[in-house]
Amino acid sequence: MKIGGFELSRNAGLTPSPRESVLELVEWLTKLGYPNLHVCVTSRPEADIRANLQPLASYCVSLHDESGQREDINDYIVSFTKTDTYMRKWKQEDKDLVIERLTRDADGMFRWVFCQLDKLRRCLPGRIRRALELPSTLDATYERTLLDIDEENWTFAHRLFQCITVASHPLRVEELAEFLAFDFDDGDNNPKFDADWRPEDPDHAVLSTCSSLISVANVGDITVVQFSHFSVKEFLTSTRVARGMTLAMS
């Protein structure tokens, strides 16, 4: 049995919380002692999860302490520089610089590496070294990404983030694109819909408005919009985000 992303389970709202219920299930399963039953749990090392699972575990692995993870990150960066539409045209010395710097500073975070590559890939040769003055954390990376959103797009991006955050089901691209046809700056606090503002290409309109913080995914025969990583929603709804950027649900 494999339980992945355990830290994503809610730890509040109910008694017991969903996380506590799963912890109790894992404890019950391990105490059964069945020789053919093996339980593998992957999670970030949050305090309550560590405290409850470590006494039950016969083997624990911290990926941040594994040398193989650094090699995997290096291989990913090398592959990206060879295959990306823009970076594959770079000089090899520029590619080598990016590979060395990102591998050195990644600290085990694939998501951090992806965000930096997404930023670097469109750089002109003369800007690469300057662009490599990278934020050292995911929070700082996301904050920089928010600041890079064009001012004229910020209101729409903010609304799209809110919609994705509170939606009771995954939103189709076409549904989310409808929000781009609302005028939120009319002055009377009543957004007005303008059919002429509907984008011709919903996918491009939504993704270009919100940069790399969201992505589209195929679910069955429909295309839905989601945050590109669970840490994006966590950051946007946290108190860590800079004043004025937090997703106040108004």
TrEMBL record:
Entry superkingdom: Eukaryota
Stored Pfam families: WHD_GPIID (PF22939)
InterPro entries reported for this sequence: GPIID_WHD
Residue span(s) of domain GPI inositol-deacylase winged helix: 156-239
PANTHER family: AMELOGENIN, GPI INOSITOL-DEACYLASE
Protein name as it appears in the record: GPI inositol-deacylase winged helix domain-containing protein
Protein source organism: Lactarius akahatsu
Highest classification ranks of the organism: Eukaryota, Fungi, Dikarya, Basidiomycota, Agaricomycotina
